[in-house]
Amino acid sequence: MSQEIFKNIPQIKYEGPGSKNALSFKYYDANKVIDGKPMKEYLKYAMAWWHNLSATGQDMFGQGTADKSFGSKTLGTMEHAHAKVDAGFEFMTKLGVEYFCFHDADLIPEGDTLSESNKRLDEIAEHIVAKQKAKGIKCLWGTANLFSNPRFLNGAGSSNSADVYAYAAAQIKKALDLTVKFGGVGYVFWGGREGYETLLNTDIKFEQENIANLMHLAITYGRSIGFKGDFYIEPKPKEPTKHQYDFDAATTIGFIRQYGLEKDFKLNIEANHATLAGHTFQHDLRISAINGMLGSVDANTGDSLLGWDTDQFPWSVYDTTLAMYEILKAGGLTGGLNFDSKVRRPSYTHEDLFYGFILGMDAFALGSIKAKALIADGRLDGFVKDRYASFGSGIGAKIRDHSATLEELAAYALSKEKVDLPGSGRQEFLESIVNQVLFQ
User: Fold this and answer.
1) Which of 8-27 are b and which e, b meaning 16 or more Cβ less than 10 Å from the residue's Cβ?
2) How far is the C-alpha of 96 from the C-alpha of 44, rounded, in Å?
């Protein structure tokens, strides 16, 4: 029986918007039924193993500030790996978080050989499965870390080394084995170094074909061992690689279709990655949704004054409302909301980990409530419908049903001689509706 690690933290409960208790939910009421479903089914929250149990706040300018030993005597050992399992499941249980996400390298210290790493993964997997059975906690998705080790300096699927490519395949195989063992509903490819720095030494077509082949191999193997979930690609435009192949949702969807992956793949959209690509979070959600590829979400936010991936906990209710507006209108997620978020370096205590999750879980809960209110209000949808009303009859209807020819359209335009301005977009009016619904 493991000892309690977060000794000063009680079970986090819903106390409502008026509560001043910092260790309580103000808006996330897990069992509140909305449209026939409890809130926890709309908002399948997940803990990111890497940030919450591993990140100490170390950055390029300074050492870590947070103690993530969790009672272990020595970091980077299997003893520490087991301590992280105990800490993670206690943490999720106290918050009511029912899912976790992992990279293979998050779970164990890498061995000197691949076989040693696999042996350690098998050992830790037994501990995790036992905890899952005891706590009722599930796996949202798994993945392999194909970017941290120096062997992946030129990428994994995009590597110029066949040996590195084969090693990446071995890691993917093992990570898929673990994902199935943990009952995961998704498997993610994040191409952290799948890209290039200069065209002077790069064959893009060659590299993209190899990446796609690796994904096809993963599909074949995953289905053969009973993996029934979705495969995801997580777009990101840059950092660490200058030109990453999965730049944004649209680019990634093009890649998926070009290489015949669309039957098995959807997208895992991260908020901070969308903004680094020069988009809003809701833009990449909408692009994914209209292409039938909205799968899962990494819930975080960036800092508009910083140009890199800060992975902050989401707190802006404007952002979470507009994100949930897209998600709910798309019919929800096949995956969930993984908090790929880390507390700031000065927030170094165990309590701060809970405050971060409470912030994010409440922000998305309130965003969900307000998004439902926006949909029920109907004025946004009504305005969009009316804005395109000219395509509902006459020449507009012929355009939409593809029966109009170019000659017919030209003749129609000549008959009009002069074209009036389109109807006003009324952005400011629509933004005032959002404000009204948010604060009523």
Assistant:
1) ebeebebeeeeeeeebbbbb
2) 11
Strand partners, 267: 233, 294
Q: Which domains does the chain carry?
A: 35-376 (3.20.20.150), 380-439 (no CATH)
Please give the pLDDT value at position 33: 86
CB 291 within 8 A of CB 334: no
Whole-structure pTM value: 0.96
Distance, in Å, from the CA atom of 120 to the CA atom of 90, rounded to the nearest integer, reads 22
Residues annotated as part of the active site: 103, 106
Residue in the structure block whose two tokens are 């109009």: 404
What are the DSSP E strand ranges found in 183-323?
Answer: 186-189, 195-196, 230-233, 243-244, 265-270, 294-298
Q: Using alpha carbons only, how large is the chain's radius of gyration in Å?
A: 24
- Structure tokens that stand for 305 in this block: 């004054």
Cα gap 45→52, rounded to integer Å: 14
Q: Tokens representing 372?
A: 């439902």
- Residues paired with residue 59 on neighbouring β-strands, in sequence order: 62
Average pLDDT value for the chain:
97
Continuous segment of H or E residues that includes residue 13: strand 13-14
Question: What is the per-residue DSSP string for 271-309?
Answer: HHHHHHTTS-HHHHHHHHHHTT-EEEEE--B--TT--S-
- pLDDT tens-digit readout, 97-147: 999 999 999 999 999 999 999 999 999 999 999 999 999 999 999 999 999
Contact 227, 176 (CB under 8 A): yes
Which residues on adjacent β-strands are paired with residue 294? 267
